[in-house]
Amino acid sequence: MANIGWIGLGNMGTPMSTNLIKAGNAVAVWNRTKAKADAVISEGAAWADTPRAAAAASDFIFTMVADGASLHAVTFGADGLIAGLAPGKIVIDMSTVSVEESAQVNEAVEAAGAKFLRAPVTGSTMLAQSGTLGILASGDKAAYDKTFPLFEILGGNQFYLGGGDEARVMKLSLNLMIATTMQMEAEAVVLAEKAGLDVAQVVEIIAGSAAGSPLTGYKKVPIGTGNYAAAFSVKLMIKDLKLAGAVGQQYGVKLESTNLTRARLELADSKGYGDLDFSVLTKLLEEESGYTR
Prior knowledge:
Elements: E1 3-7, H1 13-22, E2 26-30, H2 38-42, E3 46-47, H3 51-56, E4 60-63, H4 68-75, E5 90-93, H5 99-111, E6 115-118, E7 121-122, H6 125-130, E8 133-139, H7 141-154, E9 155-160, H8 166-194, H9 199-207, H10 214-218, H11 220-225, H12 234-251, H13 256-273, H14 281-288
Parallel strand pairs: 1-2, 1-4, 2-3, 4-5, 5-6, 8-9
Antiparallel strand pairs: 6-8, 7-8
Helix pairs in contact: 8-9, 8-12, 8-13, 8-14, 12-13
């Protein structure tokens, strides 16, 4: 049994921390909105009054928050997790943040005598619930080896990528592919719809074709039904594509499809779709094409 602190109980953090509890670990949780902790507390989690308290009570401290600003807020300050660290503890950030933001946290964690792993995940809320996410990790290898049994509870595939921020770059590389895939599917679906094909059949065919993937399988329901409740929101994907663009500039790589998709998502956001799932790109193109289901 491990003593774990978990900070951030959103769509991904709640099922992931629950899986750690069900595996027999002692988990102390903190979330900005305490009411969101009710589900994991009912599963046996303990409430920590601050990120500092969660870190002080734990050997492994996981963070899963929306963005770099949120990571900074839970990390630094009198109540931040850094204040609760001691030598030998391991901080594992599973958020998607920039390389620069990650480096700032790493420096502070190391200064406290602890170790920092960057471990963003790939996969949907459904995979978070089933404990079959992909985990992309980089940082101190000895810390990774100690944390690996916990990663096995959370994910079906684990990848160690190096001693620095390699996992951050890999995560952003995956997300730009995921986003551009949804733009391509939007174009394919709307073209087929306007030619008179049934959308439910269209998304089924796409998912089972050579162009299909786990992603197109996950998105059959929202696109097929037009119900775009967020598994991953437009706003969060815009954030990730901005981060990917910065990495592209850093390494001198043109990301033209990524930039186009980001512009489409920003248009969707401007139309009030920012809190919907990013697959709402299909609805956006339907509207522009004069198509009503």
